[in-house]
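Consider this:
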Amino acid sequence: MKTPGLSLCALLVCGVAAATACTTTTQLARFQYTPNVNGLRNAASPLSYRVLHDFGADHDGIDPTGLVGIGDTFYGTSAGGGGWRGGGTVFSVTTSGAENVLHRFGKGLMGLQPYAGVIDLNGTLYGTTSSGGTFGDGTVFSMTTDGSEKVLHNFGNGSDGKYPSASLVAVNGALYGTTNAGGTNSCSPSEGCGTVFSITTGGKEKVLHSFGKGTDGSFPYAPLIDISGTLYGTTAYGGEYGAGQTGTVFSITRDGAEKVLHSFAKGHDGALPEAGLIYVSGKLYGTTWQGGTQNSGTIFSVTRGGSERVLHSFGKGTDGTEAYGGLTDVGGTLYGTTIGGGNGCTRSVACGIVFSMTTTGSEKVLHDFGKGTDGSGPLGYLTYKNGSLFGVTEQGGVKNGGTVFSLPVK
């Protein structure tokens, strides 16, 4: 499971002796602090913020990672728990908070630890697991909304990639995604630098690009987005300024022609982009986990021609730190989360925020986590429905297994 202050690289790549130059920050791990559970429920914003579900009991999973809405029901994954070897779950939750576990990973070779949320394609859910499967290196799976799962592809059979930790994107009936290791180019003695792949809904997989061919970036942890048939994404490492904690924004055609649009320079423009991009009014917007003027992460924009601009550097007070999650566009306003910063938990450890930001860079904190049992460490993308944002926290809540929450914004 992910831990505040520890990047996905450190968990999924360093953990298997893959990447070089992986580092951690000084923030405490999830079991090194105790949230103020004696505070009032939803004390930070009692008239608006609402916990819909608390994870951590009855094998419903722990460490939820994202949501997708179908009608009045949201579907998501948890990276741990569930009862079968702690392999995680796929769950549903209604807007009123009724939760149901559709599938528990860990039995047989069905995959383990889905670090990414699922997507909906014609009423069927598609997703990835970061480990497990036939070769132990992750899977792509499909699932009906009543919980019937099928493995479409097992990673680790040659140079097809390893350890997918990002959601998929559907383009013209095919699925596209990234793996944060594997491929044909080595970034360490034991692991490749990651891939972009395509896969049909019938399970035919193809590697479109193997990272690590010079300055093209390495270790993509983020999902791709489709803009008029071209895919755009980020790598957390590599690029023009070396193999360390810099990273890139790239484009790739569906036949595999990759181009770096921007290389981060481990400076004020941000570093370690581990979330995907969104496209608003002709520009791409995204987040970095580190870098910026306080080295606490940034929000940036970049044109499809490669002109980058930092809209906000986190860490200037209570505005949040460490933006792991991506952004959500609601009518031209950007919404997102940080896993640190804000006026959060006790013992001088902050627990993250929900924020809004204009496309010109004006940021506003909408909710501070960790003041009661409202959750901590918000992760993944926010989902907008009927005037409210819906999201998950990886930790906290009554049972300290994470939460599903809603927050009205319009």
